[in-house]
Amino acid sequence: MPRTERETLSEPGRRSHIPRVSLDPDTFGAFAEGAARFMGTGKFIVYMTVFVIIWISLNVIGIYGYKWDPYPFILLNLFFSTQASYAAPLILLATNRQEVRDKLSLDEDRRLAAQSRADMDFLAREISAIRMNLGELATRDFVRGELRIELRELAERLEANGRRDG
């Protein structure tokens, strides 16, 4: 039998009789989250309770004398075991996906916090520089105060000159 492109000398050509199933991880993950979310609701518990009551009632009373799962309801237990064997991995898958989303959200929050911190540090430095430069600038109140002092001194000089001339 001729070798295909995928076969090499180190890998003998084995052909699997099991068909490969490819699932989109996001689609299956969304399904798992939906199933886990539904199993965590009161509606699911009510549905399961009604199902169990109908199942037990029909098997205790029987329909036309036919009881397909008599007490101790082994078939019902088998259904519940099967449901649990599927529910647990679905819930774990949904939890893992939520953890990944939480980690991404936390990483983004950390990045934003670091950026905010850098922005605040920059603004603090800018405000500090402005305050230092403002110390060297003459404010309106300072100029007014200086003008008042000069006006008083000028008035005093004028008075002194007026006394000398008079």
From TrEMBL:
<feature type="transmembrane region" description="Helical">
    <location>
        <begin position="72"/>
        <end position="94"/>
    </location>
</feature>
<dbReference type="Pfam" id="PF06210">
    <property type="entry name" value="DUF1003"/>
</dbReference>
<feature type="transmembrane region" description="Helical">
    <location>
        <begin position="44"/>
        <end position="66"/>
    </location>
</feature>
<protein>
    <submittedName>
        <fullName>DUF1003 domain-containing protein</fullName>
    </submittedName>
</protein>
<dbReference type="InterPro" id="IPR010406">
    <property type="entry name" value="DUF1003"/>
</dbReference>
<keyword id="KW-0812">Transmembrane</keyword>
<keyword id="KW-0472">Membrane</keyword>
<keyword id="KW-1133">Transmembrane helix</keyword>
